[in-house]
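Re-run with default settings, no changes from the original entry. Doing this only to confirm the output is reproducible before filing.
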Amino acid sequence: MEKLFVVLMVMLLSKSSITNTPATDAMLLQIDFQDFFVNDKADLKINNVLILKDVVLSSDRSTGFTGIIVVINKLNENTAQVHYKSVNVDVELRDSIKVDIFLNGVENVFIVDGGKGKYVGFSKKDANQLYFMQRATHFVYD
């Protein structure tokens, strides 16, 4: 009887943790800030809504990754929720996602079609400009 109780408790606790975790199917986009950043200051807007302000980006030289990941999940037909650490911001859901990144005060605008892949990586190039890669599988940083 004691074993049955333990099994039921484990099932109950695991079910509650699963229901509080956003579903992978709900993920529209994952944005990774990747390579060539050196103490760069950035602001991020998703569909004209400010998500990050004055975040300092510095890439690890061996991995080419800053450690900054922003995830956008679909909540319903009209709304998406943007997650970064403990920040959760609702934005209007559209056919494509407008990503504005102000890098050291210079605006970079991208229109991202999630149908081309859920994983987007931004890296710095010359003069505070950015380029991005988009793919169907997540990036690996070694």
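Helices lie at 2-19. The chain is about 15% helix and 45% strand.
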